Amino acid sequence: MTQTIEIPERQGVANNPDGRIIRRIGNTEYEVNVFFSKTNSETMNDKIKRMLKSETAV
Q1: Domain extents for the chain?
Q2: Structure confidence at residue 9 (pLDDT)
Q3: Which entry of 10, 40, 43, 58 is 20 to 30 Å from 27 by CA?
Q4: Phi/psi of residue 37, each to 5°?
Q5: How far are the Cα atoms of 21, 23, 25 from residue 38, in angstroms, in the given order?
Q6: According to the model, what pLDDT value does residue 4 have?
Q7: Could you report how far apart the first and last alpha carbons of the chain are, in Å?
Q8: Residue 47 pLDDT more than 70?
């Protein structure tokens, strides 16, 4: 049995993801759409460093 859940579009957001991840766990297939900000100036490297700093500061 296949069940698809449709999620309505968010206002002002294009419905074409920057990436898509599909994983099957047991009999369930998960599809995750990834969207990146077009206006953010922070690089992925900067973001990871910032996240690591905040995690180690605890």
Answers
A1: 1-58
A2: 66
A3: 10
A4: -70, 135
A5: 20, 26, 32
A6: 72
A7: 45
A8: yes
Does the pLDDT at position 46 exceed 80?
yes
Alpha helices, H only, the chain: 44-56
Q: Cα separations (Å) of 12 from 4, 9, 15?
A: 24, 9, 9
pTM for this model (two decimals) = 0.48
Q: In this structure, what token pair is assigned to residue 33?
A: 């759409």
CA torsion angle 7 23 47 12 (round to 10): -20
| 3 state DSSP class of 14 | coil
Secondary structure element (H or E) that encloses residue 32, with its range: strand 28-34
- Cα separation of 18 and 35, whole Å? 5
